[in-house]
Specification:
mainly alpha, Rna Polymerase Sigma Factor, Chain: A, globular, about 200 residues, Arc Repressor Mutant, subunit A, 2 domains, 9 helices
Amino acid sequence: MKVKNYEHQTEKQLLAKCRHGDTCAFDEIIFRNGEYIYSWILSKEKDRHLADDLFQRTLVKSWKAIKKFKGDSAYSTWANAIARNLFIDDYKKKQRNKEDNLEDIPEHKRPPVEVDGGLSPLEVMARKEKESTIKDALSRISAPHKEILQLYYMNQLTYKEIAETINCSIGTVMSRLFYAKKSALKLINSDKNLKKILL
């Protein structure tokens, strides 16, 4: 979503505003670079939902560290470096988790698994708790933000599917989702469970 009065500014000008906490300037930067960064992430992570999550974490981390970014390279290059580090961290975690897979646990100690969907009772409970937390957040934010979070988290649509649903570009979806998540976090900043889900 292009930001009025910001679309003609250079990236350096926008970054300067970002360092002073201007979220609109950051939205414009994401509008310009979001699809490039997301495409890079997809080249590494083929699972769309994991790629979406990695993209959002990249944006959040870059926003939090924006004051430290000197602008020696393009924002997209810097953001891709952040995404790469997050991807490597995720990969290492997966490798560690493989070491603790069910094959290494005695059969009589393995948690029961539901036939329908392959989820254990604990996983079903965690999913319901997550959905309940998100519903609570959705009840407190504006309609446009509610819609984008509903489509992404509750309906679990990809960026492309959301773009088709609300008739806009993927870049706009990325920008709106980022802004909606920030709004939700501001409203319920004390909710640690929601923070874990959104970040």
